[in-house]
Write a structure and sequence with these properties.
The structure holds two protein chains of two kinds. Chain A is mostly helical. Chain A has a single domain (about 5-20, about 25-75), classed as Non-ribosomal Peptide Synthetase Peptidyl Carrier Protein, Chain A, CATH 1.10.1200. Chain A contains four helices and no strands. Chain A has helices at about 5-15, 35-50, 55-60, 65-75. The radius of gyration of chain A is 12 Å and the shape is globular. Chain B has three domains: about 45-250, SGNH hydrolase (Rossmann fold, 3-Layer(aba) Sandwich), CATH 3.40.50; about 255-440, Rossmann fold; about 445-605, Aminopeptidase (3-Layer(aba) Sandwich), CATH 3.40.630.30. Chain B is built from 24 helices and 19 strands. The chains are: A mainly alpha, B alpha/beta.
Chain lengths: ~80, ~600
């Protein structure tokens, strides 16, 4: 867990969470605020922050920190942390 | 927007700017949190905004809220259930008359006329035309419901944007009941509704979206959540909405104070003469002509124009009377201040004469220096342009919201709600302010010998400087070179740098040794470019000359002021510098300085050459 984890910081800022949160808790199943409306905004935020575009299959598999991380790295985004 | 948020503390201002530039929701939330920390009276007046929409605005509420907070207002944003336009109006409780509020109806043909996206499956053309008629009746019905249930609350009806996501736009272009023609018919009707009903206005989302182009909308977000706006589009939409509501709360500015040279025409009348000015139907004179057209339009809309120019009034007057393409007339200006005073002093005088507060004024000037001085010395004033370029000035006139208004009657009715988040400012102590302003320019001067590398510029300045020019002697290059190389002569050029950048050589002083050997110096030429007036560079150059003369053991300095129709600005310069008048001559006023007492270098200008 690092301060330089840009994805983690983005999720914490986006959902207004405490910086003590565990990465495992950063998921649609543990965060009630992570509903379908939040999802739209989150995708916009991820796309503009990391300069990527997601296709439909990928969007349906962006339900947690680890899934997003996995997807971004497959797109060649170099994530620290 | 930067103008709206100027009174927020720096921390909030920076957070808002960052949120707006990035469009990031996290940054939007942070800016909202920081604004929330301010005292209520710092946040702006309350404003209730009710949003009724056929598309989903819920995800972008924080962004909309930030836009409204920038005005600044303390907004309460109420979002009606999706697509429940009529039901929400009927259920709503009337607002108190003194509550600033607005109801906004946002719709798209994707929801109100989905058939037009698929014309051939929807009974093109007759049945489709009937569907458009129905949508128009629905809009009419909404206006009537609103007037019955919420009379007095301003109602903003949006126009529908042209759909971006449909097939065969080539076919659609041909028919009045296709996807594009239907939008046009619907929108025309929205405008007619606004024109014929009290307190009903148009929110022209169609024009806004057209100006942003494809980048405002994303089909992914639209299909996922019926929220069509991209992150970039959301922020732009929020600011557009805020600007549209702003006239409900804040009165428009009443006066535009404009500069003359390089604004109403290209060139400087006092330097270039009337024949040298650019104004007309060819580029770039047409840019200045267009600026005049916009100013005249503004005047006809009810704003007052004030002329602020550093010029001899006779020169300016003559240009107004004799330039063939001059559109604005001398009398179009409610107040004219054409003289050599500081512009901020002239503006205060104009404010007193018109009986209008300084916060009713907008200032337009091509000079970075004048704008910066005005910004610092009269903080209430709104500076219209950020660049001196004529095209940028024209764009600033197109884009400004300073003179926005919806309609006179509503504005008058709501004006008492205007309230200022600014503390009363002390208008005393201008002299101290001026000193502080000059210091803030971070002026840095280098005194150079006139030499082959700057000779060209020096000769050009001798050839064209008319105003701050004591002798107006038009020496050729060769003559300047000859004078500079005489033993005992002093030939200095002053190079100025300030926080706006390198201004180049802006002042020249040439002096030659007198008949009685090197013990005396006679000033041949002393001039300052009109771009550098009022900043004290002449004092710096003078101090440099005196230092040089003292080094050379000069006992006596002689000078002459030769009056011309253009150089009255320096008629008393030598008196101010402490020279003594001696017998006049037919050609001008003669002065001497004997002995050559030390002169003070102006404290607000740093000397790159070291201790002069």
């Amino acid at each position: 867990m690092s301060d330089h984890d840009e994805l983690r910081n983005l999720l914490i800022d986006f959902f207004g969470l405490s910086s003590a949160v565990q990465n495992e808790e950063l998921s649609q199943s543990s965060l009630p605020a992570w509903d379908s409306l939040a999802m739209v905004q989150l995708i916009g935020e991820l796309q503009s922050t990391f300069g990527v575009e997601f296709d439909l299959d990928q969007i349906q598999a962006l339900r947690s920190y680890s899934e997003i991380r996995e997807c971004l790295s497959r797109k060649g985004v170099n994530l620290a942390g | 927007m930067h103008w709206w948020i100027r009174d927020f503390p720096a921390r909030q201002r920076e957070a808002i700017s960052e949120a707006i530039t990035t469009g990031s929701l996290a940054k939007v939330r942070r800016a909202l949190r920081l604004i929330q920390e301010l005292a209520v009276e710092q946040q702006g007046p309350p404003l209730t905004v009710e949003l009724l929409s056929t598309y989903n605005l819920e995800p972008i509420l924080p962004v909309l809220e930030l836009g409204l907070k920038c005005l600044p207002t303390c907004p309460k944003v109420e979002l009606a259930p999706l697509n429940d336009l009529e039901g929400h109006i009927v259920r709503s409780v009337p607002r108190r008359a003194d509550e600033a509020s607005a109801r906004i109806v946002l719709w798209r043909i994707e929801e109100i006329l989905p058939g037009v996206l698929f014309p051939l499956s929807s009974g093109f053309p007759e049945q489709l035309t009937a569907q458009v008629d129905e949508a128009i009746s629905r809009a009419e019905g909404i206006v009537h419901l609103h007037q019955r249930h919420a009379p007095g609350t301003p109602l903003f009806l949006s126009t529908a944007p042209f759909p971006l996501h449909f097939a065969n736009p080539v076919f659609a272009a041909q028919h009045s009941s296709g996807p594009l023609g239907a939008v046009e018919r619907f929108n025309r009707h929205v405008r007619e509704l606004a024109a014929t009903h009290q307190s009903v206005y148009v929110l022209d989302v169609c024009a806004w979206a057209a100006a942003l182009g494809k980048s405002y909308s994303d089909s992914l977000f639209d299909l996922m959540a019926r929220q069509p706006l991209t992150p970039e589009g959301q922020m732009a939409f929020a600011l557009f909405l805020a600007r549209s509501l702003r006239p409900l709360i804040f009165p428009r500015r009443k006066v535009l104070a404009v500069d003359l040279d390089n604004t109403l025409w290209g060139g400087v009348v006092g330097e270039d003469g009337i024949a040298g000015l650019q104004l007309g139907h060819d580029f770039p004179g047409n840019v200045h002509l267009r600026i005049q057209r916009e100013l005249l339009e503004l005047r006809n809309r009810g704003a007052l124009l004030v002329l602020l120019s550093k010029n001899n009034e006779a020169d300016a007057r003559l240009a107004f009377d004799s330039l063939p393409d001059m559109l604005l007339k001398w009398d179009d200006f409610a107040v004219r201040k054409v003289n050599w005073e500081h512009k901020h002093e002239n503006l205060r005088a104009a404010s007193r004469e018109l009986g209008l507060g300084l916060d009713s004024f907008v200032f337009l000037d091509d000079s970075d220096y004048e704008r910066e001085q005005m910004r610092q010395l009269i903080p209430e004033i709104q500076i219209l342009n950020e660049s001196g370029d004529a095209l940028q000035i024209l764009r600033a006139l197109w884009e400004t919201d300073a003179f926005d208004s919806l309609a006179i009657s509503d504005e008058d009715r709501m004006r008492h709600r205007d309230y200022s988040v600014r503390a009363a400012r002390d208008v005393q102590g201008h002299e101290n302010d001026l000193q502080a302003f000059l210091e803030s320019l971070e002026m840095e001067v280098a005194i150079e010998q006139v030499n082959p590398s700057n000779l060209e510029r020096v000769a050009t300045m001798l050839g064209k400087t008319n105003q701050f020019n004591l002798t107006t002697r038009r020496h050729s290059r060769a003559e300047v070179q000859q004078l500079a190389s005489q033993p005992g002569s002093v030939a200095l050029a002053l190079r100025l740098r300030d926080k706006f950048g390198d201004q180049g050589i802006v002042a020249v002083l040439l002096a030659q040794s007198g008949q009685n050997g090197q013990a005396s110096l006679t000033i041949d030429t002393f001039l300052v470019s009109c771009r550098a007036l009022g900043r004290g560079v002449e004092d710096a150059l003078w101090a440099a000359l005196i230092a040089r003369a003292r080094e050379q053991k000069v006992q006596k300095l002689e000078a002459i002021y030769i009056p011309t129709p253009k150089n009255t600005i320096v008629a008393e310069l030598y008196d101010r510098l402490g020279l003594r008048r001696v017998e006049g001559s037919s050609s001008g006023t003669r002065y001497v300085l004997e002995p050559v007492a030390p002169a003070t270098w102006p404290a607000w200008i740093s000397n790159k050459n070291g201790n002069e």
